[in-house]
Amino acid sequence: MTGERRDKPNAGALDRGGGDSLSLTTTGNQGLDVLADAIAERVFQRLAAVQERNKGRLLDVSAAAEYIGRTPTALRHLIAKKTIPSVRRDGRVQLDRQDLDNWVELSKTRG
Fold it and tell me: What is the pLDDT of residues 5-24, one digit of tens each?
């Protein structure tokens, strides 16, 4: 049974609301399949949480650093030097996506 498709309706189909589903294969070991499905679900939940966190206009330092491809420490240095504007609210430092996009555009060199 290794490599065979699951016979149950919707078994092995991962549907995340868009109507698209991904057909999966079975390993032939039900316990291993359950474990793989659980791991896949956990990974999906974590990715969905990151996407949800990044939807807003204001990003925290970690999300903003990831957005521009820098480390949080490097981004904090840019904030301290006032190279990138920040929003300080309730003791938190946040960055506006538009300011990050502007910084990227201004950092481009013509070669």
Answer: 444 444 444 555 555 556 56
Structural tokens at position 7: 């016979």
User: Which sequence spans correspond to the domains of the chain?
Assistant: 13-53, 58-107
The amino acid that residue 64 corresponds to is A
Which of 67, 52, 60, 50 has the alpha carbon at shortest distance from 102? Answer: 67
**Residue 90 and residue 92: Cα distance in Å, rounded?**
5
Q: How many whole angstroms from its chain centre is CA 10?
A: 26
- Which amino acid type is present at position 89? R
Residues written for the chain: 111
Nearest 5°: the CA angle 96, 59, 66 is: 110
Answer positive or negative: Cα dihedral of 104, 53, 39, 18. negative
Please indicate whether residue 81 or residue 6 has the higher confidence score (pLDDT).
Answer: 81
Q: CA 111 to CA 59: how far, in whole Å?
A: 31
